[in-house]
Amino acid sequence: MEIMKGIGVSPGVVICPAVVLDAEDLVIPRRLVDVNSVDKEVARLREAFTKATDDLNVFRAELKAEHGNDIASIFDFHAGLLKDKTLLNSVLKEIQTSHTNAEYAVSVAMKKLAGTFLAMKDSYLADRVKDVYDIEKRVLRTLIGNAHEGLLNLQQNVCVIAHDLLPSQTAALDKNRVKGFACDVGGRTSHTAIVARAMGIPAVVGLGNVSSAISGGDLVIIDGTRGVVIVDPDADQLTEHEEYVRQYIEFEKELATLKDLPAVTTDGHAVTLMANIEFPAEINDALDRGAKGIGLYRTEFLYMASVIEPTEEDHYLAYADAVRRLDGRPLVIRTLDLGADKYIFGKGPSKEANPFLGDRSIRMCLHNLPMFKAQLRAILRAAVHGDVRIMFPMISTIMELRQARMVLNDVIEELEDEGASFKGDVPVGMMVEVPSAALLASNFAREVAFFSIGTNDLIQYTLAVDRTNERVAGLFTPAHPAVLSLIRDVIRAANRQGIGVSVCGEMAGEPLYTLLLLGLGLNTFSMNGPDVPEVKKIIRSTTTEHARQVARKVMSFDSERQVVHYLREETRKIIPEAF
Ligand code: PEP
Ligand code: MG
Q: Is 191 a catalytic residue?
């Protein structure tokens, strides 16, 4: 048994066998194998080379049938290398002398081979390094392929263990079978964590080396509430956690009874609870949990789930699907927020030194107008079917907002000229997630129909804390008085101007902050679907006056510790079983 401590990012407990996922573009973890298992690794390796060769032959035959010999012969080099005894022997030697797992031995040997090609003066030969990488992936895919294929076609419930899960990989998981995540890296608002919460499954990140400590098939307990992963639990641990799972299910059942009840305080003040989604398919579950619409549709996931750039039609189909599922309820479509941690699988992370401060989000869209316009056209076309609103992310200057609106106006003119069916007068809002926008909220409020406060990025940029870095996760908190005063001012500015305002960062779904946000004058919350019932329960158990008192007190504190301590006490007064 081994107990590992990380950051619990999605609550709940799950007990099931592990599947260890080694992403193609990530480092293959080194695992030492004992002497008796060396032969097994050698056999796995030989089998992988044979299978890779067979697969390649099938692929070449298909290419030949479709495109003729010229294209198929490009892969002769691959076939030759796979047959090459020197290569196979160098991998075998790595396993036998260093006692490592076959995957790791392949990556070491291939790196050496790639180095040899790169050093060649002849540019044709140096270019062959790409073929080396290709073959490496082919062999690795066959070695770890069981895990990959298994993830698409799982026969039993599993927990997924990985170094990191790219948002695109997370999005592609079989949601009916994957019951928990555990990753080596990541923080509370990393997108993997957000997706885990949206899926309502327990997750722990920032565990350091969980992907090398666990082998496929090991029994694990993932405790997302306490941030603990237990590998190979003993009988006592199992009994204790099985009981915990049972209690958790009971609690969920109790919350489910609130589904059709309104989110009103005991003195009759109504609040709107909306949900955040990454894919239209999540809408039904969000409505089932009691959400009244979608306050944040993270459309960049359309890009991340695909290896090719989505067309205007792909965008349109996704948005029209979302509108149809909502049946008249509001849908806030956020325009593409790509870049930084939300990069596209296959293209890899940005090469910029500081991608979070770089060419991301609205900046990237304004630098790539065809991409931006294709999305805006699709939104306006889908808007004829329901209540659609547009939201621009990461706005940091007023000019950026005006430029984005100009592009929108151009798109409206183009659609008009084409005689297309579309709706031009959709409400346009913006995310307030950069301190400059929060500080100038009164100015921005004059130019938009609504604000949505993105606390995930607002915290990151206000406190200079990377939201994905587990080493500084302790510093990442909405309770910091500087963050709270920005939130208060943005809500005030919006209310004064009479425009809509919501919070759509993770803070909106954390029950600890419900009383405070309510007391600061927030009337719309947008959160992951599974968080809706608990937040509703708190709203239904308090009065506006109580929430205001709580907010006044909180704003007098000068440390996040005081804030958290006080909010926990106040919330427990009304809901003793909270947290
Ligand atoms: C935020 O920053 O709070 C937000 C909601 O956007 P995202 O998490 O997608 O960056
Ligand atoms: Mg953001």
A: yes
* Position in ligand 1 atom list of the atom nearest CA 298: 9
Tokens for 252? 């969920």
394 Cα: distance to centroid of ligand 2 (angstroms): 7
Query: pLDDT 10s digit of each residue in the chain, 579 long?
Result: 789 999 888 888 999 988 887 645 444 556 778 888 889 889 989 998 998 888 888 877 877 776 667 666 767 778 888 888 888 888 999 898 888 888 888 878 887 887 787 777 666 666 677 677 778 878 887 887 644 444 656 678 889 998 887 665 666 677 788 899 999 888 877 777 877 887 788 999 999 888 878 877 789 999 998 889 999 899 998 898 888 888 888 888 888 899 899 999 999 999 999 999 988 988 998 999 999 999 999 998 887 666 578 899 999 999 999 999 999 999 999 999 988 776 654 445 557 888 899 999 999 999 999 999 999 999 999 999 999 999 999 999 999 999 999 999 999 999 999 999 999 999 999 999 999 999 999 999 999 999 999 999 999 999 999 998 888 989 999 999 999 999 999 999 999 999 999 999 999 999 999 999 999 999 999 999 889 999 999 999 999 999 999 999 999 999 999 999 999 999 999 887 766
What are the φ and ψ backbone dihedral angles of 207, each rounded to 5 degrees? -90, -5
Ligand 1 shell residues, CB under 6 Å: 296, 298, 337, 433, 454-457, 504-505
Number of H helices and E strands in the chain, helices first, is 25, 16
Residue type, 397: T
For residue 422, report the distance from its CA to the centre of ligand 2, in Å: 28
Residue 117: how many other CB atoms lie within 10 Å: 17
Ligand nearest to the CA of 304: 1
Annotated catalytic residue 78 = no
How far from chain centre, in Å, is Cα 235?
Answer: 34
Which residue spans within 100-196 are E strands per DSSP?
Answer: 158-162, 178-183
**Distance between CA atoms of residues 114 and 558, nearest Å:** 56
Give the 3-state secondary structure of residue 214: coil
* Ligand 2 ion local residues (Cβ < 5 A): 433, 454, 457
| Whether pTM exceeds 0.90 | no
Q: How far is the CA of 268 from the centre of ligand 1 (A)?
A: 31
Q: How far is the CA of 335 from the centre of ligand 1 (A)?
A: 12
Catalytic residue among 163, 191, 315, 546: 191
Which atom from ligand 1 is nearest to the alpha carbon of 454?
3
Helix, strand or coil, per DSSP, at residue 187: coil
